[in-house]
Amino acid sequence: LEEAAFQLQQIFRIDISIALNILGIESMRAGHYRIAYTCFKLAADRGYSKAQFNVGLCYEHGRGTEKDLEKAAFYYYQAASSCHPMAQYRYARYFLCHRPENEWDRHQKAVAFLEQAAMAGITGAQACLGVFYMRGLQPKEKRGLKYLLLAAKNGDAQSRYHVGVCYEKGLGVQQNLAEAMRHYRQSAAAGNRNSRERLRV
Fold first, then answer.
1. Rounded CA gap, 16 and 186, in Å?
2. Long-range contacts of range 73-77, CB-CB < 8 Å, 24 or more positions apart?
């Protein structure tokens, strides 16, 4: 009986969190940012990862609350720890762009989150990882190219441009100017200025 009561409490807690999150989304759509933030925060405090992600967005963009990137990162981390792919991407991006590299453990966690988000199909995470692996102190060009190709296949024109650079310079792949030009043309057709400039040269 105690187990059944506990399970009912868990279901009720989850249902309330889902309802609060939905109310938050509808309030956000209606332009009621403060109400949306309040709904998201209540659900986030109950441990609901989608609401934790939404609270992170509110803090990142200053919607319904003051803009605070540290608090956004905190909520992204909470959601990311529950395997929320977009939260993994946003936390990792924040950490890699705004924190010192000497925080090795957190740096490794950010890269692990980024890899999980990339494998979940988040194009931005794939592109970010591709560039990350190409530019590091000890570049991992083949690994970087793998992620750039994934992002390019998902329609990211900037990643397609970077793939062209890889083929042009032989980074992580056999140098192949014809293949580089093919990628530059595809990227330029998608509106990438760097590719257009590369084609003029």
1. 47
2. 73/98, 75/44, 76/52
Summarize pLDDT for 26-53 with one digit per residue, the tens.
Answer: 999 999 999 999 999 999 999 999 999 9
Half-sphere exposure of 145 (CA within 13 A, CB side): 18
Q: Is the pLDDT of residue 10 over 80?
A: no
Radius of gyration of the chain (CA): 21
Q: What are phi and psi of 123, to 5 degrees?
A: -60, -45
Q: What is the pTM of this model?
A: 0.80
Task: Identify the three-state secondary structure at position 66.
Answer: coil
Nearest residue to 166 via CA among 197, 190, 135, 138: 135
Other Cβ atoms within 10 Å of 23 Cβ, number:
18
Neighbours of 9 (CB within 10 A): 10
CA atoms within a 13 Å half-sphere pointing along the CA-CB vector of 195:
23
3-state secondary structure at position 24: helix
Q: What confidence category does residue 5 fall into, taking pLDDT thresholds of 50, 70 and 90?
A: low
Q: List all residues 6 or more positions away from 63 whose beta carbon is below 8 Å from its beta carbon.
A: 28, 33, 36, 37, 57
